[in-house]
Amino acid sequence: MSALHVHVDGIGLWSPTLGDFAALRAQWQGADVSVPPSRPRAAALPVNERRRAPESVLLAVEVAGQAVAMSGCAASELPCVFSSMYGDQLISDYMCTTLAQAPHELSPTRFHNSVHNAPAGYWTIASGCRAASHAISAGDASFGAGLLEAATLCLAEQRPVLLVCSDIAGNGPLGEMSGIRAAFGCALVLSPRAGPRSLAHLALTLTPHAGDALRPAPPTGAWHEANPIATAAWPLLQNLIDGGGQCTLAAAETLAMRVVLETLA
Asked: How far apart are CA 184 and CA 21, in angstroms?
C-alpha cells in the first residue's frame, strides 16, 4: 500500500517518573529530572471533575492537554482517538469483586467510569469538543492501532487529530493477568500538512507479519517495560528524541506498520 504521510505537531507524556516529553528527552540525554506529582494534574478538567475522576481519566487528559498545548491547536476542534489495552483496571477489579460478593452495592458512578470511552468523554466535555471521538483497544497492538486510526482519520478529514494512548497499573487478579506495573500515557497531535509548530514527518506503511513476529523482546529492566503501551511506543518516542529513524510497530495481530520519521524542527 502507499505510505500514509502525517506530521507531528505536539507530544504529551506522563509516567510516575517522567512528567512530560521534555523530561524523557532530558533523561535519555543523561540529565537528572524531577519526579512529577503522584497523580497527573489533568489541568484541562474543572476542579470538581478532577477531584472525582479516576486515575485512568486523569492520565489520558494530562497527556492530551500537553500535546494540544504544544501543537497550538484548539482542543475544541480536534477529532480524537483514545487507545488503551485494558481501560480502567482498578474499576474493573472493583466491579468484578462487588458483583461476586455484594452486587446490590455496586456504585453507579464507578460503573459510569468503567466504560472504555470514559477518558474520551471527559476530555471532549471539558474541551467543548464536538468533533468525532474514537475509543479503541487492540491488545499488545493498541499503540500501533491507535496511531493507524489517528493517521487515517487525519488524512481522510484533512485536519489535525489528537491521539491518546494510556494504561494504568493493574490490581488484583486483573493486575496479575495484565502484568502492568506502572501507569503510562502518551499523546500526539497529527496534522496532514507541515506547519510552523510541526516537529517531525511520519511515513506509515502497512505490511503483513506473523502473529508472533512483533512480540515484546525479553525484559531488560528498562523503565518502559513496566507498561505495554510504553513498551510499544518507545521505539517511536526514541526516534522523536533522536530526530529521525525508523521502527516497526504492531498495528494488529497480523499487521505490522513501518514508521519512518524525519525531523522538521
From this structure: 12
- Cα-trace Rg, the chain: 18
Output the pLDDT for position 95: 86
Question: Under a CB-based contact definition with an 8 Å cutoff, are residues 188 and 150 in contact?
Answer: yes
Domains of the chain (ranges; CATH) run 8-196 (3.40.47.10)
Closest CA to 254 of 151, 149, 143, 138: 138
Cell triple for residue 205?
506503511
Hey, is 35 helix, strand or coil? coil
Residue type, 17: T
Residue with the bigger pLDDT between 212 and 127: it is: 127
**Mean of pLDDT values over 196-221:** 81
Is residue 215's pLDDT more than 70? Answer: no
Write out pLDDT tens, residues 158-171: 999 999 999 999 88
Burial class (CB in 10 A: 0-12, 13-18, 19+), 11: buried
The residues that bridge with 206 in the sheet, in sequence order, are: 257
Sign of CA dihedral 51, 56, 57, 58: positive
- pTM comes to 0.94
Encode pLDDT of 135-158 as tens digits.
999 998 999 999 999 999 999 999
In what helix (H) or strand (E) does residue 81 lie, and over which residues does it extend? strand 80-83
Grid coordinates standing for 256? Answer: 505490522
Q: What is the DSSP string of 165-209?
A: EEE----HHHHHHH---S-EEEEEEEESS--TT--EEEEEEEEE-
Q: What whole-number distance in Å separates Cα of residue 143 and Cα of residue 149?
A: 10
| pLDDT (0 to 100) of residue 24 | 96
